[in-house]
UniProtKB/TrEMBL annotation:
Gene Ontology cellular component list: membrane
Residues in EamA domain copies: 91-229
Similarity comment: family membership: Belongs to the drug/metabolite transporter (DMT) superfamily. Plant drug/metabolite exporter (P-DME) (TC 2.A.7.4) family.
Transmembrane segments: 12-32, 44-64, 89-109, 121-140, 160-178, 185-203, 209-229
Compartments reported by the entry: Membrane
UniProt protein name: WAT1-related protein
Main location: membrane
Signal peptide: none
Cited InterPro entries: EamA_dom, EmrE-like, WAT1-related
Lineage: Eukaryota, Viridiplantae, Streptophyta, Embryophyta, Tracheophyta
Keywords attached to this entry: Membrane, Transmembrane, Transmembrane helix
Topology relative to the membrane: Multi-pass membrane protein
Source domain of life: Eukaryota
Length: 266
């Protein structure tokens, strides 16, 4: 749904909508009682305010352009493409919203799965394997042309290698580790930084136009991000570890009771 929405809308629209994943994950986590939210507390209010501020910064980056920042040098990498984009904003918006919702649910499912299966490496392997198998079946049903499976030794090849090794391997493993330590909301709050990094890398590497609205929105996103992180700093240790600690305490209590009973029997 994410890649299909890029064909029907614009990358700027998709990049801005993807940053709503943090807000959606926060709402779902609160509903499922995986995230503590006390509006009467200052830190609890900071979570809500920071989320809204980050979302406002992303919208500023998308809707407000402002003056153009002059590029003092040319592009380091030149990419020439001949693919045409078929605009269909209604279909593209539905696909983007569906992608964001399922993406948020995916983060929640990671946190739930790690409670019973705390093995990040093997979980990453299973997700990548099943995702690849699912994509292969879906592509075989939709794309009947052999050209859909043909990859030349060009940017397509290197992007596939990067997507498999870094995105589907290293990044998911790091996300799983962070989710186990701090929860899914903590991980998704860093998603708005991707929009900032894309804008600046496109400016310095690809030579694309950078507007002052992107810089202003990026600053607001960072402010909102740190407000949320300050609010989460007052939270207790994540539920996964607390449940493990409580189970260990219960086991210690049971061992103590067994020792007392056995000593009394003797």
């Amino acid at each position: 749904m994410y890649f299909a929405s890029l064909r029907y809308t614009s990358p700027t629209f998709v990049a801005s909508m993807v940053n709503t994943i943090a807000s959606l994950t926060f709402i779902i986590a609160v509903v499922l009682r995986m995230e503590t939210l006390d509006i009467r507390n200052t830190r609890g209010m900071a979570k809500v305010v920071g989320t809204v501020v980050s979302l406002a910064g992303v919208m500023i980056m998308t809707l407000y352009k402002g003056p153009v920042v002059k590029n003092m040098w040319g592009a380091l990498i030149h990419i020439h493409g001949n693919d045409t984009i078929h605009e269909d904003w209604l279909k593209g918006s539905i696909l983007t919203i569906g992608s964001c919702i399922t993406w948020s649910i995916w983060y929640i499912m990671q946190a739930i799965t790690l409670k019973k299966y705390p093995a990040q490496l093997s979980l990453t392997t299973w997700m990548s394997f099943l995702g690849g198998a699912q994509s292969a079946v879906f592509t075989a049903c939709i794309q009947h042309k052999p050209s859909a499976w043909r990859i030349g030794f060009n940017i397509d090849f290197w992007s596939t290698i990067y997507g498999g090794v870094v995105v589907s391997g290293l990044i998911i493993f790091i996300q799983l580790w962070c989710t186990e330590q701090r929860g899914p909301v903590f991980v998704t709050m860093f998603n708005p930084l991707s929009t900032i990094l894309v804008a600046f890398l496109a400016y310095f590497v690809l030579g694309e136009i950078l507007y002052t609205g992107s810089i202003l929105g990026g600053i607001i996103v960072i402010i909102g991000l740190y407000v949320v992180l300050w609010g989460k700093e007052g939270d207790p240790k994540y539920e996964v570890n607390s449940q493990e600690d409580s189970s260990l305490n219960n086991e210690e209590q049971m061992e103590t009771k067994i020792q007392v009973i056995s000593s009394v029997g003797k």
